[in-house]
Amino acid sequence: MRAVAVTGAGARISLTRIRNSLIAGLCGASVHSLLVLVHGKSGPLPEFNPNDDIQRGLSWLTGTEMHPGVAWLLVFVNGAMIWGFVFGQAYRFLPGKKPWRKGVFFGVCAWIAMGLVFFPLVDRGIFAVKLGLGMAPAILLLVMLLAYSVTMSLVYHLLNSWSDPV
């Protein structure tokens, strides 16, 4: 029997699907974090490190120096919990029948949002072009976000297939 929460408007939200979305987000965030770590140690673009931009932005917002671990924790929690939950709620509306296609669509949308909103906010310009590295940062970001979103989508689909009776 599936646990269900009822909201004020009467809409049913499956607690199993919420759990699955959080687990899937955690898996996607883990893959993304591993890629960020590898890139930080031996990546092709040492000048491009979005986690440093997040840390710098947090320091500016709070008016105090942020420990690098805070930025990592924020990225991990954001990717696992917030975007995992959003993904789970949006999954059935995402285009495509295959989970990898849904993941690609979600990743491309996240890439566009980061390129057009986040990087200009941290003074890197649209898609980080102010770094003077051409499209390389945008392409690297796309690869990292696709690894995150496709992993999340595949895990979410798998968990739901195990949870739902056929």
Key attributes of the depicted protein:
two-stranded antiparallel ribbon; 166 residues; 69% helix; mainly alpha
Summary?
The chain is mainly alpha-helical and 166 residues long. The chain is built from five helices and two strands, in the order ββααααα.
Count of DSSP H/I helices: 5
Residues in helices, as a percent range: 55-70%
Secondary structure category: mainly alpha
Q: How would you sum up the major sheet?
A: 2 strands, antiparallel
- In round numbers, the mean pLDDT is 87
Shape: globular
Low-pLDDT parts are none
The structural domain count equals: 1
Strand order of the largest sheet: 1-2
> SSE order in H/E notation?
EEHHHHH
Beta strand count: 2
User: Whole-number radius of gyration?
Assistant: 17 Å
Strand content: under 5%
- How far apart the termini lie comes to 13 Å
Structure write-up:
This protein has 166 residues and is mainly alpha-helical. The relative contact order is 0.17. It has a two-stranded antiparallel ribbon with strand order 1-2. Helices cover 69% and strands 4% of the residues. The mean pLDDT is 87. The protein has one domain. A hairpin with a 5-residue loop joins β1 (4-6) and β2.
Topology:
Elements: E1 4-6, E2 12-14, H1 15-42, H2 50-62, H3 68-90, H4 99-121, H5 136-163
Antiparallel strand pairs: 1-2
Helix pairs in contact: 1-3, 1-5, 2-3, 3-5, 4-5
